[in-house]
Amino acid sequence: MEDINSYKQLKWGILAYFFLLIFEGALRKWVLPGLSAPLLIVRDPLAIWLIYLAWSKQIFPFNNYVTGMSALTIFAVGTTLIFGHGNIPVALYGARILLVHFPFMFVIGHVFTKKDVLKLGKIVLALSLPMTILIILQFYSPQNAWVNRGVGGDLEGAGFSGALGYFRPSGTFSFTTGTTQFFALLACFIIYFWLKIESVNRLLLFISTLSLLVAIPFSISRTLLFSVIISLFFALVAIIGNSKYSSRIILAGGSFFILVLALSRLEFFQIGLEVFTARFENASVVEGGLKGTLVDRYLGGLVDSFYINSDLPFFGYGLGMGTNVGSQLLTGGRTFLIAEEEWGRLIGEMGLLLGIGVIGLRVSFFLNLVSLSYKQVKSEIYLPWMLLSFGAILIPNGQWAQPTTLGFSTLAGGIILASLHSSKN
Question: Where are the domains of the chain?
Fold first, then answer.
């Protein structure tokens, strides 16, 4: 009975982590702006408590990834204090990423079941319509409007540069990154439920699909469009050659076509599409077209991380220095003291040896998920594979220094692991 109650507590705690991830920005912008600084890490105490609860009940999933990451991070804390910047709060802020949120992935994966993951997916579908309405309001409202207020009640607004005088909306999040990642998560669940349409309310699926199609242009986010394309590609890989799903592909494709055709006749949607197209074209010109946007921006960033700091100390500059909070504590201003890209930050903070060790563990964990998920595809078990399409960038190379991205990465790793435990999805 005690174990059953412990699992229930852990599941409720994981759901609380999810809702804090979705609404943390709303708390910081609109509800408790005076507490915007501590609310930045509002999920951390919850994750620590849930890890402790799992450990105390002897249900914490110890494994080589958790052990290896913890050992590297603890060692890096020591080198930070001895050879690096030496600031204890900054070091602890940087260490919490790998000592708290990374292990919490495995708690989610151990405690959640396929049924829990699907419930979470339906919650995401249910949130899609109000989230889409919100970003449309933010899109059309001036930056000094209440709906666009920034963290701490900042009247300059939470929007980020877009195109044609319009700003990228932040939704319920502190920054536009959250909007992009929420709808990217929505996309992989939508595509999965179209493949398994008997497992979801069809009206809810239709409304959430419409919400996603509307959200893409109004988000003014190329990353969101690419994320949806990645999820579609994963779906095609999964079902190619399987005639069983032909009718569902036709149904989904026909629904998408009708929705796009109907939306294209609405003036409010045409404006959003025009702005999104302008943003896409302008950014592609600056970055050198599709190659610059996709190849150089992602793969180039991975390569650059190995030589971005030619005079890097052996043990790096110290944990947390590459985060916005770390730079604020160390210099009084928010700037990239090390590198904007994730791998460059890790190597800059921890040095080449420890940094590559952390990167290696993240990549190894991701490749293991790829292997396990694809094996289940052969048995027509698609949930892990579709969720992997969301975690494909976040897990190996997501910018974990950014709290919202860290939260979505933790959630992605956890629910992929949880879905792998099921014998039939």
Answer: 124-287
